[in-house]
Amino acid sequence: MFSDLVGKRVLVTGSTAGIGLAVAKLFVQYGAKVAINSRSQNEVAETAINELVALGKAEDVFFIPADLTKSAECKKMVESFIDRFGGMDVLINNAGGLGGRSSLELMDDDFYDHVMDLNARSVLMTTKYSIPHLRASAAEFGKTASVISTGSIAGREGGGLGAGVYAASKAWLHNIHRNWVKEYTKDGIRFNIVSPGTVDTLFHADKSDELKDKIAGSIAFGRFAESEELAPSFAFFASHNCSGYITGQILDVNGGQMCP
Ligand code: NAP
Prior knowledge:
Layout lengths: L8 E4 L5 H12 L3 E6 L4 H13 L5 E5 L5 H15 L4 E4 L15 H33 L3 E6 L3 H4 L6 H21 L4 E8 L12 H9 L9 H12 L1 H4 L5 E5 L7
Parallel strand pairs: 1-2, 1-4, 2-3, 4-5, 5-6, 6-7
This protein binds NADP nicotinamide-adenine-dinucleotide phosphate.
């Protein structure tokens, strides 16, 4: 079913760890050409690239450093990707994060800007600069190109204490996809969201074991998800064979933590 991912040119943002790395690995295993990204070329990035090379071909994977809270870096990342692979078939907007916690009364402009830049601006600008290339891919191959963004259960239910802006930024993401469906379906570009529940990544590094157990108890499966359990949903939305008539959807991968 995923055979059409062979040779597809896939950009995965925020992907040296966690969900993004698991997604990149799966796409490499399916024979795609994959670029991963994080803010800087550190040891974590080197390890991630080595892991990807071990799964595929060295010439089919590379790393692009870019801090996607900044519009200019979103643009440069897309340019680097096109320079290397000559086009783009799939964009996965995964970079994002809590960006800190603040109650409403203590919140200042810097906090608000940081959380929104990390989760909203990053996706807006990366998608903006990718659209011409995705449109060209759809026209050249006669198959839909795909944008998949990582949403969140928080975007559905409001988020934990101090995470209101994060939750709102993910709801923003869920909704702006619906607008892009209206504008770009005629160009053969699909937009879908994978919305995780609670996934065992560094995202939860600030939580005590006690709190993690409490959260796990609120999930029907009784445990956090592994990043690898998220990755196939991205492959499904990337594959024209699997989901060529599906756009504007949110797929909740949350082990029954919430059933919207
Ligand atoms: P993670 O394990 O913390 O990994 C985040 C990745 O993004 C890392 O590679 C990180 O590398 C990179 N990154 C961070 N800031 C960046 C920036 N400004 N520009 C470019 N790259 C950046 O996170 P995760 O848990 O896999 O989360 C991935 C996505 O899933 C996020 O959008 C998150 O909101 C969403 N999500 C996660 C959960 C969960 O429970 N884990 C639940 C719902 C939604 P550097 O730090 O080195 O830059």
